[in-house]
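Lecture 7 notes: from sequence to structure.

We start with a single chain of 422 residues. Read the sequence below before looking at the structure.
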Amino acid sequence: MRQILIHMDESGVYNESDLAPFHRRLSELRNIVQHDMESGKHPPAMTKLLERQLNECENLLRKLQDSLSVLSPELIPIHERLVNIRRQLVALAARETAREVAAANAQVAKLEDLKGKSSASSLESETSEGDSRTPTRESTPKPDGYRDKDGRDGKDGKDGIRVRAELKPIQEELRKIDSKRVDGKFLGPGGTVPASQAICSSLLEECFEIVQEIRAQDESKNVATSLRPIYDRLSEIRKELEQLVLTHRWSLRETDLWNYSLSLQEIDKMRVDGKFVDTEGNRPEGQYVLLYLLRRCYGLIYRLLSSSEPVSEELMPIANKLSTVKKCLNEVLKYGGPFSPRDLYPYQLALHQIDSMRKEGKFVGVDGTVPEGQGIVMAHLNECHELLEMLKESMDDAEEEDYVDDDDYDFNDPSDDEEDEE
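Now the structure, written as tokens:
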């Protein structure tokens, strides 16, 4: 817990909701230590040591809490702009969710209508012999997820362009705000570091996360039918892990998350050269969203384990190196392309070097033993791999992203409003 608090202090990325679980847990531990001291259950030296460590954690937590209590005048304009951007992103996400629900309801109504027409036509064909017709391509109902010969999704494809077009200026503004930071800190006049960095830094990171979530939500419309079972399974795992973060954050162990890790590894092994393929060996659409879900699941496992399991001193250099690689990959993901495979090579090499340290899937100590913290480090390593694959997938989509500008989509086109009304 002390290690996590120190890391939060160094990164400056946290908010009130992040600190609340630490307050509750430290209060519980304080009661336990106090009860042991009064009952004499453990030697005085041990309870004194525990109390000192508890005081250190509480002091760190108090420091983090104080940094959130006051917003420096120098950071007020940045904070206000970030709050407005977050409102825009939340509104965009809600609008896209509502659009998906409306589209799903329309699809159900259409299928029911087709079913009714099909029943009526079958009755007519029974009463009138020789009046049967061979269905044409135009009259045949299109299956869910149908694409025309140009690979477009009709209305979904236009919605995708609209979402990317709305996200683009928001992303650019977030990048401008992020570029004002020096070594992760916003600076004031004369190069000073104003207090309450965490408020703005955590809000900025949250905005970047919402952008990725909206993009993944938009991409989920285009997941091919052959990849749907994988998408549904990853969505289910993610939902269960998010629930565990809320309910069992401090009590889980690596063995409790074994089934989730195993399921994710099995899904990972389905990929060929980093891509999910269908039965014919093709690479269907929906790669990005699956990689995003994998990364989120590994990140949640890392978060759960880091709250309850320690990392041994022998594994700390590896854990620190992975933290650095992950931070760099996240920065690249924020700023996007254009970049080439050569730009990603240093990160790929770093992960390969860490991978090569394992023996039979485990990180082994100098004396041949298996140090504590295997699950945490492996979750961290897998998350870095998924980040890298997401960046590779973004390279493939770079040309598609480039053509999204004001000429590609007319937001005032009345035909779109007519389609939405239908």
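The first strand starts at residue 181 and ends at 182. Keep this in mind for problem set 3.
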